[in-house]
Structure formats: C-alpha cells, structure tokens
Amino acid sequence: MDGLHYEGMIIRPPSEAESIILQVTRGCSHNKCTFCGTYKGVRFRIKDDAIIDRDIDYAARNLQFLRRVFLADGDALIIPQGRLAGILQKIRTRMPWIQRVGLYGNAKSILRKSPQELEELRDLGLGIVYLGVESGDPQTLKDIRKGVSREKMVEAGRRIREAGIKLSVTVLLGVAGRERSLEHARATGSILSEIDPNYVGALTLMVLPNTELGRRAQEGAFELPEPRELLVELREMLAHTHMSRGLFLSNHASNYLPLKVKMPSDKEKALALIDAALEGRVRLKPEWMRAL
Ligand code: SF4
Question: Whole-model pTM?
Fold first, then answer.
C-alpha cells in the first residue's frame, strides 16, 4: 500500500490544514446531532491497529516536513485510554519532530477520561482538543440532540483546559432557529465565558437536506435566521462572551462577516464593526461567496 489509508470523506478543522491526518476511527461515536450529515449511515469503529501502525510508519518515512498530526474522524478521544496512549506513544517514537497532536472529542468522551488520563495524553503529545459546543442554551442542546447537558458541556471543556491541553470549540450561528436566536446567542456567550477556551469558531449553520434539521426546515418547522438576524445573533453572542485570552473567530467560509477577535482586547472594536455592518457601513459577504 502506498499513501495513508483513508475511508470516506475526511473532515478536519481548518487550522489542521498543514497537519498529517491519521484516520484512527471511522465515523462519530454519537452520530445523532440533527444538523449533522457528515457520518450519516456510517457505523462508528476504531480502525485496526495494523492499519494505524502502517500509516504511522508511512508518515514517518514520507511526511517529515509536517510538524503536526490530526487524528480523525469524528471523535478519536473515545478510543480507550491504553490504545490511545499507545497511538500517541508510537507517533512520538516514530516521529519525534511532531510538535502537536490534535483530535475531535465530544463531551461524553472527554468526561469518560479522568483528569489523570487526560494529563497522560497531554504528556504523550496531545496538544489540542476540538469540541463542538454548538450552543449554551439547554433547550437548543436538547433540540439538536447533542446528547449532553449544558452543565456536562462546561465540565468537559474545563477538564481539557485543566489538563493543560488547548481547547478549541465551535458554536453554531442559526442553530436555534429564528425564534430562539437571541436566547441561544446569550446562553452561548455565557457558556463560552464559563469554559474560557483558547479558540472559539462561530460558524454559520448550513442546513443540509440529508439531515433531520433539513427535513424539519422543509416542513417549515425550522427557520434559519436571515443574514441580518445572524449578524445580530453574532453580536449578542460576542457581547456576552467574556474570555480571559484567546481568539474568537468567525471567519469560516460559511459566515457572512469574517472576524478574528483577540480576546478580550479587541472585543469592543469587533462589536463596533458588527454595528457598522448592521447599519450598512460595511458590506456583508454576498450570498454566492458562502459556498467557497
Ligand atoms: S458529535 Fe459532531 S460529528 Fe457527531 S453527529 Fe454531532 S456534530 Fe456530527
């Protein structure tokens, strides 16, 4: 076999574009979020050790110019501690130049690890965990079937930070629909303040036809806020977000107004920029650019 072994489409955070992507699991262990079509119909499993080993060997021989590793797919943190520690150990031994390993972890799999286990993973090179928070609004978390309460989400996020691992979270603009837009915005700002992550990515929800939310939208039971309402939502969210440091990004291709806010110093400037956009003094991205 030549090259890395991949099954299906590989999803990774934008910040891992320059990383070696090692696919250690297939699918997502939760796979129930109503807005997510990424792993529809895919049964979650951990890939064979032999395949993972071969990939690490391949990367060690051929990808020495890359400094980071990302472990895909949806929720690699669910891998039992001994096995995950073994994978990190192998990466460290075979690729000692690697500076950081990252992965997606959902709240449940984070909470299945004890603080000591997370510290062990950190010592073996796990440098960043990506967590999909989506919303801080308890009702919205329930509606989108995130499978975790607000309290547990906070606990999970904090556990990563307390283990000395960087935490990058995503929240979804529009995910609560039009009616709950502002509740979602405020509660999400407040959960971000409680978790105090290193990075926040506020992405605009794309309603996909192959999802439960897509079906609800077609039936008229879910309405995505209009671009202007999404901007008001973003403003409200940012205004309620109090982070001690880190970045609040809203620069995904699916967003209407790209923002990179150094927290807390640039927050007021960013709010003023959003206000200018709301007053028509800054142009929003035209609709056709969103698909880029
Ligand atoms: S946890 Fe993530 S990958 Fe899994 S269903 Fe939810 S959004 Fe999709």
Answer: 0.94
CB of 69 closer than 8 Å to CB of 106: no
Gap from CA of 28 to ligand 1 centroid (Å): 6
Which range of 3-12, 55-64, 223-232, 256-265 scores highest in mean pLDDT? It is 55-64
34 lines ligand 1 (CB under 6 A): no
Residue 87 Cβ < 6 Å to ligand 1: no
Summarised one tens digit per residue, pLDDT across range 13-35 is: 999 999 999 999 999 999 999 99
Average pLDDT over residues 256-276: 91
In this structure, the residue with its CA closest to atom 3 of ligand 1 is 74
For 154-165, the pLDDT digits (tens) are 999 999 999 999
| Other CB atoms within 10 A of residue 218 CB | 11
- Name the closest-CA residue to atom 4, ligand 1: 31
Query: Terminal CA-to-CA distance of the chain, rounded, Å?
Result: 33
- Pocket of ligand 1 contains residue 26 by CB under 6 Å: no
Q: Report the separation in Å between the CA atom of 30 and the middle of ligand 1, taken as the mean of its atom positions.
A: 6
Please give the number of the atom of ligand 1 that sits closest to the Cα of 28. 4
Domain 14-287: which topology?
A: TIM Barrel (3.20.20)
Tell me the helix, strand and coil percentages in the chain, rounded to 5.
40, 15, 45
